[in-house]
Design goal:
With 187 residues, this protein is α+β, with helices and mostly antiparallel strands. The chain folds into 2 domains: 91 residues, OB fold (Dihydrolipoamide Acetyltransferase, E2P); 72 residues, OB fold (Dihydrolipoamide Acetyltransferase, E2P) (Beta Barrel). The chain has 3 helices and 10 strands. A hairpin with a 4-residue loop joins strand 9 and strand 10. The longest helix has 25 residues.
Length: 187
């Protein structure tokens, strides 16, 4: 091979290598549709159409090991890291659910419609609320029209909330049960 042809081939290879690395960076953080290939121990091996398969911990499917996903089942997964030290793609089912929930919540926030959620924990100044996979903060002052001394009766039950603020970059959602109660006092 002549020297100019060798230099051109070297530049082509370098360009392809650089393009390959850039493509991997854009895949990280994406939600992809995958197919369960098999279940090994505590992980499900999932094919997402890339060069290698990825692993998802079985606990992220929300079921016990005895109720693992079926081979061939289609699942949405979030790409955490393109390849780890073993050459596997690190995937997360929980983060895919969270991303999906954020998309739905953003649409409902724009329409100022109410969302359904469950109060599941107490934190300083208020409560944590599960909004179908996304976690929101319910300030103590926004629980009801009147101050609530004991909110245990609200825990674990579905309620309607109004989204007051959303910041996806910070992962921050603030909701109000009080605003919803004012609009419809019978509920």
């Amino acid at each position: 091979m002549s020297e100019p042809a060798l230099a051109a081939a070297s530049e082509d290879f370098a360009a392809l290598l650089e393009e390959s690395f850039q493509g991997n960076a854009t895949i990280e953080g994406a939600v992809l549709k995958g197919t369960v290939l098999r279940v090994d121990g505590d992980y499900a091996l999932v094919d997402v159409g890339l060069k290698s398969e990825g692993r998802v911990p079985l606990r992220e499917f929300g079921r016990g090991n005895e109720d693992a996903p079926a081979v061939g089942e289609a699942v949405d997964v979030y790409v955490e890291r393109y390849e780890d030290k073993d050459g596997m793609i690190l995937l997360s089912r929980d983060k895919a659910r969270r991303e999906e929930a954020w998309d739905v919540l953003e649409k409902q926030f724009e329409k100022t419609s109410t969302v359904e959620g469950t109060i599941f924990g107490r934190v300083k100044g208020g409560f944590t609320v599960d909004l179908n996979g996304a976690v929101a903060f319910l300030p103590g002052s926004q629980v009801d029209i009147r101050p609530v001394r004991d909110a245990n009766y609200l825990m674990g039950e579905p309620h309607e909330f109004q989204i007051l603020k959303m910041d996806r970059a910070r992962g921050n959602i603030v909701v109000s049960r009080r605003a919803r109660t004012r609009r419809n006092p019978r509920r």
